[in-house]
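Hi F.,

I've been meaning to write this up properly since the lab meeting, where we talked about keeping a consistent format for the predictions we share between groups. The idea is simple: the sequence comes first, exactly as it goes in, then the structure tokens exactly as they come out, then a line or two of notes. No screenshots and no reformatting. I'm using this chain as the first example so we have something concrete to point to.
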Amino acid sequence: MAWLQTDPSGNIHLSFRFGGKKFKRSLKTQELSKAEGRLQRLIENIRLVESGRLEVPENADIAMFLLSDGRLDGKPKVARNINLSELFQTFFEQMPDDSLEVNTEKGMKIHERHLERHLGPRFRIQQLIREDLQRYVNKRAKEPGIRGRTLSPTTIRKELATLRSVWNWALGERLVLTPFPNKGLRYPKGEEKPRFQTWDEITAQISRGGLSDAEVEDLWDCLFLQRSEVDELLEFVRTVATHPFIYPMVFTAAHTGARRSELLASKLSDFDATHMTIREKKRFVVIHLEVA
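Output, unedited:
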């Protein structure tokens, strides 16, 4: 049973009985047509619940649940005001120990400084919209990068990826209430990197001339060493290493592709006569060692 009532000021209220209890809520309107529409929707929602097609959550606000077509089960939660600096501070404080690699956390804090420099440390994070992010992209794209070029779009994407990761964490903590507003962002076109090449291929291009110093450095960044060159490099490291761990560490990196952080995390128990275990962030990799 459900019905409408009008109070002395003309505001319309909706009353109904459900589960043996009486409920009354203001519809915050004086227009009868709107109120009657809400009444009919309520009656339909009660019918859906009684037929089992709509389930009321445990401890839900019954009136709000039925009046919202099952979308709300309590008063909407409002995120507390928090600025950009506080957001990052809270994020790092609540991260469990060792949940982030040292280099990852260091990189995120560098990104945080750039974000605060342009957006401002007191920027109210709940007010962030796509236009704010686009202005950030446009400003960063004009700043100097390496080798006389402006900052690469790859770097800008990484900075915003950091902000998105922190935002997604904040979404789970109810510090923000909406998805990260990066849809539709436009980035400057980046320069395509050269493909991986051998030493001979690179020196042949340089000998032909016409390359800037930056372009030459780009080529050497893409050097692919052949097996004999890897062996030559390792022999050089072995002869000049000033600490006993350097050569085996570089040797392992050269033959496995393991990162420095993964190698530094190695333990004696990770090695035996025929195998070694590399502890990657999300998995273990066991490598067979060929003993000469």
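Notes:
The first strand starts at residue 2 and ends at 6.
The mean pLDDT is 88.

If this format works for you, I'll send the rest the same way.

G.
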